[in-house]
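Extended Data, panel c. Modelled sequence:
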Amino acid sequence: VAGGSYAPALALGASGEPIVAFDALDAGPKPIVRVRALSGASWQTLATIDAEARGVRLAAGGASEFALAYQETGIGIVVVGWDGAQLVPIGAGPALPAVSGSFALSTDTARGATLTAQGQGTLTWETNSWDAVAQDLGFADSSQAADRTLAHAPDASLFSAFSEVPVGESAARVYVQRLD
């Protein structure tokens, strides 16, 4: 690739094959997001998105085989799902405004996709709309909770890990929360 590839995200497809999404700089004038899957012994490009992304996240499962969230410069955090043939938007437009901090994505067949971003809170895609998750300490409100990650348990419970500086302290701590 002429300009290089960077900031990969990894998930496993329904058959266990690795799927990778990453920011790339090809020979063209604009950066792209590329999604590839390992098919047999070779990598196949599933999709190429014309976007200047500042981070990509992949999550397997949910309503689609996998979901991809990317933060497009000047637009916000966009979420799309793979329908077996192409990436299709999950919602109209960006799910959240652009952030300077971290964001995370997780999927689950019962709940759909869940997206969280530092300073923006947490949203879950259910019944054709992004709905705010009820406030739950640092992780679900617009706090300084940074370095966010999300994971759905087999029972559809949502977990988040993040770092945050407790009130009156100077060093960050890592927290894990379960949101039912």
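The mean pLDDT is 84. This feature is highlighted in the accompanying rendering.
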